[in-house]
Design goal:
Blueprint (H helix, E strand, L loop, with lengths): L1 H7 L3 H23 L2 E9 L14 E6 L2 E5 L15 E7 L2 E7 L7 H22 L1
Antiparallel strand pairs: 1-2, 1-4, 2-3, 4-5
Helix pairs in contact: 2-3
């Protein structure tokens, strides 16, 4: 049993990091694929960092689809502040689930997801290399 644990444990961090990166990347790409309708939105709160997360700004956006108001607070934390209250934005939303949306101006680079994937793969390669030796 100890032999199995010593074999499996070094791989777990690599699998977790890679899994997180791939999952978030898949979700964001799914949003881009399914959110094909667009509407005008507005920043209703700048997200001044005075709440729980003091490390950046998380604005709240408001948009309307067929007369129903929706709000969106992306997981993206902005540093420095990128949006100001009353600013117009383009919102892409899923026509079948209008509450699923993203802001065009986010300018996603997928950097964080790629970092998780690269670090996870590096850990996996190191574990494989140590296992083979």
């Amino acid at each position: 049993m100890e032999e199995i644990l010593n074999t499996v444990i070094p791989f777990l961090p690599g699998v977790v990091f890679t899994g997180i990166g791939v999952s978030v990347l898949w979700y964001r790409k799914m949003l881009r694929r399914e959110c094909i309708a667009q509407t005008a939105g507005v920043v209703v709160d700048e997200g001044d960092g005075s709440g729980k997360r003091r490390d950046g700004y998380r604005p709240i956006f408001s948009y309307s689809v067929q007369g129903v108001e929706h709000t969106l607070q992306p997981s993206t934390v902005y540093r420095p502040k990128k949006f100001s209250e009353g600013q117009r934005v383009t919102v892409f939303y899923d026509p079948s689930k209008p509450q699923r949306a993203y802001i065009l101006e986010e300018g996603t680079t997928y950097a964080l997801e790629r970092i998780f994937i690269v670090v996870g793969l590096a850990i996996l390669l190191a574990a494989i290399y140590s296992f083979v030796l």
